[in-house]
Specification:
7-stranded mixed sheet, 4-stranded antiparallel sheet, 11 strands
Length: about 120
């Protein structure tokens, strides 16, 4: 099992920045990909960004150029730096982890952290 603990959410004004952190523990040898998803009220959960153990990253079109995903392998932690935040970024953000060889890739989930962007 892998445990994921997110932190760093909060309330920020439009144009502001936040950095989310996700610390992984447990059977981390079993994962080679981590990501961030978000779910706004009344909407489906959507992929925000992913990163592999090799550092390869990918982003949703809606956040490209504003969000950056990174990882610190020594700390088993993944970060999501969010800049130029917009009200439509308001959502609960979830950290996820899994294996590229599995279907679905992301098997483990954190509890979520609320991000609210005020206009």
């Amino acid at each position: 099992q892998v445990r994921l603990v997110e932190s760093g959410g909060g309330l920020v004004q439009t144009g502001g920045s936040l950095r989310l952190s996700c610390a992984a523990s447990g059977s981390i040898y079993s994962i080679n990909a981590m990501g961030w998803y978000r779910q706004a009220p009344g909407k489906q959960r959507e992929l925000v960004a992913t990163i592999t153990n090799s550092g390869s990253s990918d982003y949703a079109d809606s956040v490209k150029g504003r969000f950056t995903i990174s990882r610190d392998n020594a700390k088993n932690t993944v970060y999501l730096q969010m800049n130029s935040l917009k009200p439509e970024d308001t959502a609960v953000y979830y950290c996820s982890a899994g294996s590229l060889a599995a279907t679905p890739i992301f098997k483990y989930w954190g509890q979520g952290t609320q991000v609210t962007v005020s206009s």
